[in-house]
Design brief:
2 domains; three-stranded antiparallel β-sheet; 7 strands; about 30% strand
Length: about 160
C-alpha cells in the first residue's frame, strides 16, 4: 500500500506533471515486485547519449521486439515453439517470454538496435529542438522621452 501523498507536489510545481506522474507510477506499480529478468545495463556513451544492453541469450532477432510508444521503450521477447524432442539434463538458460519497459525523457529518441553475442544493444540520444534551446533576449534601452510619456499616462 502506498504511504506517500503527492498532492502537495502537484500544487507547488508548474510544468513538472510528468515527474510527479513518474514518481506516482514508480510508487504504485512495482511495490514489492522487482522485475529481475532479463538483466540489463544502462551506460552513458556521450553527454546526450546512452546505451541499454539487455541480456537475451537464447533468443533470435525474429523472437525479439523493440517498440517505442509515447515516451516508453518496450523490449519484449517470445520464444518460438520448439518442436524438437530435446531432453535437457540441466536448463540454465532462461527462454521465458518477457516484457521490459523503460520510460524515456522528452526528446530522447532511439537511434538503433543491434543483437550480437546474446546481447541486445539499444542506442539512445537526446535531441532538443532549436525552439526549446535557451536563447538570450535583448533588452532594449528606453529613451527619456518614452519614460516621461509613460509617467504622464500613469498620472492621468
Amino acid at each position: 500500500m502506498r504511504s506517500f501523498d503527492l498532492a502537495p507536489l502537484y500544487r507547488a510545481t508548474v510544468g513538472f506533471d510528468q515527474m510527479a506522474d513518474l514518481m506516482d507510477r514508480l510508487l504504485t506499480d512495482n511495490v514489492g515486485t522487482q522485475q529481475t529478468y532479463p538483466p540489463y545495463n544502462i551506460e552513458k556513451t556521450a553527454d546526450d547519449g546512452w546505451r541499454i544492453s539487455v541480456a537475451v541469450a537464447g533468443f533470435t532477432e525474429d523472437e525479439l521486439s523493440v517498440e517505442l510508444r509515447e515516451n516508453a521503450l518496450i523490449v519484449s521477447a517470445r520464444k518460438a515453439e520448439d518442436d524438437s524432442e530435446r531432453t535437457y539434463l540441466h536448463r540454465g538458460i532462461a527462454t521465458r517470454a518477457f516484457e521490459r519497459r523503460f520510460t524515456l525523457a522528452d526528446h530522447v529518441r532511439v537511434t538503433g538496435a543491434v543483437h550480437e553475442n546474446g546481447m541486445l544493444h539499444i542506442d539512445l540520444v537526446r535531441e532538443v529542438p532549436e525552439a526549446l534551446k535557451p536563447r538570450r533576449i535583448e533588452i532594449a534601452r528606453g529613451s527619456d522621452e518614452d519614460r516621461k510619456a509613460a509617467e504622464a499616462k500613469a498620472v492621468n
